[in-house]
Amino acid sequence: MLYPTIDSLKAQSILAKLTAGESLDVESVTTWTGAGDRVDFGALDQGLTELGIDSLSEPEADRSDSARMEKLEGKLAVVVTKHLRELPVEILDDQGFWNYLAVSRFWPFIARREAKAIRQGNGLKYVDAKHRTEQIPLRLYLRGKSVIDSAPELAWKLERSTDFWRSHIIRVRIGSNPNLATAFARLQKEERMNTSELRRYARRLNRTVTNLVVEVLNQDDADALVEDLRE
User: The whole model's pTM is what?
Assistant: First the structure.
Protein backbone atom coordinates (compact mmCIF):
# COMPACT_ATOMS: atom_id res chain seq x y z
CA MET A 1 0.00 0.00 0.00
CA LEU A 2 1.22 3.49 -0.85
CA TYR A 3 1.09 5.90 2.09
CA PRO A 4 2.24 9.48 2.87
CA THR A 5 5.04 10.40 5.24
CA ILE A 6 6.78 13.53 6.49
CA ASP A 7 10.08 13.17 8.33
CA SER A 8 10.93 14.88 11.62
CA LEU A 9 13.11 17.57 10.06
CA LYS A 10 10.36 18.62 7.68
CA ALA A 11 7.80 18.46 10.48
CA GLN A 12 9.84 21.01 12.42
CA SER A 13 10.03 23.46 9.51
CA ILE A 14 6.33 22.93 8.72
CA LEU A 15 5.42 23.70 12.32
CA ALA A 16 7.30 26.99 12.12
CA LYS A 17 5.31 27.98 9.04
CA LEU A 18 1.97 26.91 10.47
CA THR A 19 2.66 28.73 13.72
CA ALA A 20 3.50 31.87 11.76
CA GLY A 21 0.24 31.59 9.86
CA GLU A 22 1.94 31.02 6.53
CA SER A 23 0.21 29.09 3.77
CA LEU A 24 1.52 25.61 3.17
CA ASP A 25 1.07 23.03 0.46
CA VAL A 26 1.45 19.88 2.56
CA GLU A 27 1.53 17.57 -0.45
CA SER A 28 4.60 19.35 -1.80
CA VAL A 29 6.63 18.23 1.22
CA THR A 30 5.12 14.76 1.48
CA THR A 31 6.92 11.57 0.52
CA TRP A 32 4.83 8.61 -0.63
CA THR A 33 6.18 5.27 0.56
CA GLY A 34 5.36 1.69 -0.36
CA ALA A 35 3.63 0.34 -3.45
CA GLY A 36 0.16 -0.34 -4.82
CA ASP A 37 -3.00 1.62 -4.12
CA ARG A 38 -2.84 4.79 -2.07
CA VAL A 39 -4.28 4.90 1.42
CA ASP A 40 -7.89 6.07 1.24
CA PHE A 41 -8.56 8.81 3.80
CA GLY A 42 -12.15 9.40 2.67
CA ALA A 43 -13.89 7.85 5.68
CA LEU A 44 -11.49 9.46 8.13
CA ASP A 45 -11.96 12.88 6.55
CA GLN A 46 -15.72 12.52 6.73
CA GLY A 47 -15.54 11.63 10.40
CA LEU A 48 -13.29 14.59 11.16
CA THR A 49 -15.59 16.93 9.25
CA GLU A 50 -18.61 15.67 11.18
CA LEU A 51 -16.82 16.55 14.42
CA GLY A 52 -16.08 20.05 13.12
CA ILE A 53 -12.30 19.89 13.26
CA ASP A 54 -11.93 22.08 10.15
CA SER A 55 -13.99 24.87 11.71
CA LEU A 56 -11.90 25.25 14.86
CA SER A 57 -10.50 28.74 15.29
CA GLU A 58 -8.30 30.46 17.84
CA PRO A 59 -9.00 29.39 21.44
CA GLU A 60 -11.65 31.29 23.29
CA ALA A 61 -10.62 33.27 26.34
CA ASP A 62 -12.76 31.36 28.83
CA ARG A 63 -12.12 28.59 31.30
CA SER A 64 -14.50 26.08 29.73
CA ASP A 65 -12.55 25.71 26.50
CA SER A 66 -10.26 23.05 27.98
CA ALA A 67 -13.23 20.86 28.90
CA ARG A 68 -14.69 21.17 25.40
CA MET A 69 -11.38 20.30 23.79
CA GLU A 70 -10.92 17.34 26.14
CA LYS A 71 -14.28 15.92 25.12
CA LEU A 72 -13.55 16.54 21.45
CA GLU A 73 -10.18 14.79 21.84
CA GLY A 74 -11.97 11.70 23.11
CA LYS A 75 -14.41 11.68 20.21
CA LEU A 76 -11.60 12.23 17.73
CA ALA A 77 -9.76 9.29 19.29
CA VAL A 78 -12.61 6.94 18.39
CA VAL A 79 -12.88 8.29 14.84
CA VAL A 80 -9.13 8.00 14.24
CA THR A 81 -8.96 4.47 15.59
CA LYS A 82 -12.07 3.34 13.77
CA HIS A 83 -10.80 4.43 10.38
CA LEU A 84 -7.09 3.62 10.69
CA ARG A 85 -6.89 0.43 12.73
CA GLU A 86 -7.09 -1.88 9.69
CA LEU A 87 -4.09 -0.32 7.97
CA PRO A 88 -0.99 -2.53 7.64
CA VAL A 89 1.23 -2.51 10.71
CA GLU A 90 4.19 -1.08 8.78
CA ILE A 91 2.14 2.06 8.16
CA LEU A 92 0.94 2.38 11.75
CA ASP A 93 4.52 1.91 12.98
CA ASP A 94 5.91 4.64 10.72
CA GLN A 95 6.38 7.92 12.61
CA GLY A 96 6.39 9.80 9.32
CA PHE A 97 2.81 8.69 8.66
CA TRP A 98 1.61 10.24 11.90
CA ASN A 99 3.61 13.40 11.18
CA TYR A 100 1.77 13.70 7.88
CA LEU A 101 -1.60 13.33 9.59
CA ALA A 102 -0.68 15.96 12.17
CA VAL A 103 0.03 18.70 9.64
CA SER A 104 -2.42 17.67 6.91
CA ARG A 105 -5.55 17.08 9.00
CA PHE A 106 -5.09 17.83 12.69
CA TRP A 107 -3.43 21.23 12.78
CA PRO A 108 -6.65 23.15 13.58
CA PHE A 109 -7.18 20.90 16.61
CA ILE A 110 -3.52 20.99 17.64
CA ALA A 111 -3.46 24.78 17.39
CA ARG A 112 -6.58 25.04 19.55
CA ARG A 113 -5.83 22.25 22.05
CA GLU A 114 -2.19 23.15 22.67
CA ALA A 115 -2.29 26.88 22.01
CA LYS A 116 -0.31 27.85 25.11
CA ALA A 117 2.53 25.41 24.44
CA ILE A 118 2.73 26.50 20.82
CA ARG A 119 2.93 30.18 21.82
CA GLN A 120 5.79 29.27 24.16
CA GLY A 121 7.65 27.48 21.36
CA ASN A 122 6.97 23.98 22.72
CA GLY A 123 4.66 22.71 20.01
CA LEU A 124 6.92 20.23 18.19
CA LYS A 125 6.04 17.29 20.43
CA TYR A 126 2.40 17.58 19.35
CA VAL A 127 3.39 17.26 15.68
CA ASP A 128 6.43 14.97 15.63
CA ALA A 129 5.60 11.32 16.41
CA LYS A 130 9.00 10.76 17.99
CA HIS A 131 7.07 11.99 21.03
CA ARG A 132 4.76 8.98 21.07
CA THR A 133 2.50 9.88 23.97
CA GLU A 134 2.21 13.57 23.11
CA GLN A 135 1.92 13.72 19.30
CA ILE A 136 -1.75 14.41 18.68
CA PRO A 137 -2.90 11.91 15.99
CA LEU A 138 -0.85 9.06 17.49
CA ARG A 139 -2.02 9.66 21.04
CA LEU A 140 -5.58 9.84 19.73
CA TYR A 141 -5.13 6.47 18.06
CA LEU A 142 -3.62 4.85 21.15
CA ARG A 143 -6.37 6.24 23.35
CA GLY A 144 -9.13 5.04 21.04
CA LYS A 145 -7.53 1.64 20.50
CA SER A 146 -7.52 0.95 24.23
CA VAL A 147 -11.32 1.06 24.56
CA ILE A 148 -12.92 0.99 21.11
CA ASP A 149 -13.96 -2.66 21.12
CA SER A 150 -15.63 -2.73 24.52
CA ALA A 151 -16.59 0.78 25.64
CA PRO A 152 -15.66 3.48 23.10
CA GLU A 153 -17.70 6.09 24.94
CA LEU A 154 -15.13 6.02 27.76
CA ALA A 155 -12.73 7.81 25.41
CA TRP A 156 -14.74 11.02 25.82
CA LYS A 157 -16.92 10.54 28.92
CA LEU A 158 -14.06 10.75 31.40
CA GLU A 159 -13.84 14.42 32.34
CA ARG A 160 -10.50 16.12 33.03
CA SER A 161 -8.70 12.98 31.97
CA THR A 162 -5.80 14.06 29.77
CA ASP A 163 -3.21 12.95 32.33
CA PHE A 164 -5.14 9.74 33.03
CA TRP A 165 -4.92 8.60 29.42
CA ARG A 166 -1.36 9.75 28.87
CA SER A 167 0.24 8.68 32.15
CA HIS A 168 -1.84 5.71 33.23
CA ILE A 169 -2.89 4.09 29.95
CA ILE A 170 -0.78 5.07 26.93
CA ARG A 171 2.63 5.28 28.61
CA VAL A 172 2.39 1.99 30.50
CA ARG A 173 1.72 -1.68 29.88
CA ILE A 174 -1.96 -1.34 30.75
CA GLY A 175 -2.58 0.26 27.39
CA SER A 176 -1.52 -2.93 25.61
CA ASN A 177 -4.60 -4.76 26.88
CA PRO A 178 -7.89 -3.10 25.88
CA ASN A 179 -9.81 -5.10 28.49
CA LEU A 180 -7.58 -3.87 31.28
CA ALA A 181 -7.59 -0.30 29.96
CA THR A 182 -11.39 -0.40 29.75
CA ALA A 183 -11.73 -1.74 33.28
CA PHE A 184 -9.40 0.94 34.66
CA ALA A 185 -11.14 3.74 32.73
CA ARG A 186 -14.54 2.54 33.86
CA LEU A 187 -13.38 2.45 37.48
CA GLN A 188 -12.06 5.99 37.22
CA LYS A 189 -15.31 7.19 35.65
CA GLU A 190 -17.42 5.62 38.39
CA GLU A 191 -15.28 6.49 41.40
CA ARG A 192 -13.33 9.54 40.20
CA MET A 193 -10.14 9.21 42.22
CA ASN A 194 -8.30 12.47 42.80
CA THR A 195 -4.79 12.93 41.43
CA SER A 196 -2.82 11.58 44.39
CA GLU A 197 -5.23 8.70 44.97
CA LEU A 198 -5.18 7.81 41.28
CA ARG A 199 -1.39 7.76 41.19
CA ARG A 200 -1.21 5.47 44.22
CA TYR A 201 -3.75 3.12 42.71
CA ALA A 202 -2.02 3.16 39.31
CA ARG A 203 1.28 2.20 40.96
CA ARG A 204 -0.41 -0.80 42.61
CA LEU A 205 -2.00 -1.82 39.34
CA ASN A 206 1.23 -1.47 37.36
CA ARG A 207 3.20 -3.47 39.92
CA THR A 208 0.58 -6.21 39.71
CA VAL A 209 0.51 -6.46 35.93
CA THR A 210 4.29 -6.84 35.73
CA ASN A 211 3.72 -10.37 37.01
CA LEU A 212 0.87 -11.15 34.63
CA VAL A 213 0.53 -12.00 30.97
CA VAL A 214 -1.92 -9.13 30.45
CA GLU A 215 -2.60 -10.07 26.84
CA VAL A 216 -4.66 -13.08 27.95
CA LEU A 217 -6.90 -11.20 30.39
CA ASN A 218 -10.53 -11.19 29.26
CA GLN A 219 -12.92 -8.43 30.31
CA ASP A 220 -14.25 -10.28 33.35
CA ASP A 221 -10.72 -10.99 34.56
CA ALA A 222 -9.68 -7.38 34.04
CA ASP A 223 -12.76 -6.04 35.82
CA ALA A 224 -12.11 -8.34 38.78
CA LEU A 225 -8.46 -7.33 38.97
CA VAL A 226 -9.07 -3.59 39.10
CA GLU A 227 -11.88 -4.03 41.64
CA ASP A 228 -9.76 -6.26 43.90
CA LEU A 229 -6.94 -3.74 43.92
CA ARG A 230 -9.34 -0.94 44.81
CA GLU A 231 -10.35 -2.56 48.08
Answer: 0.91
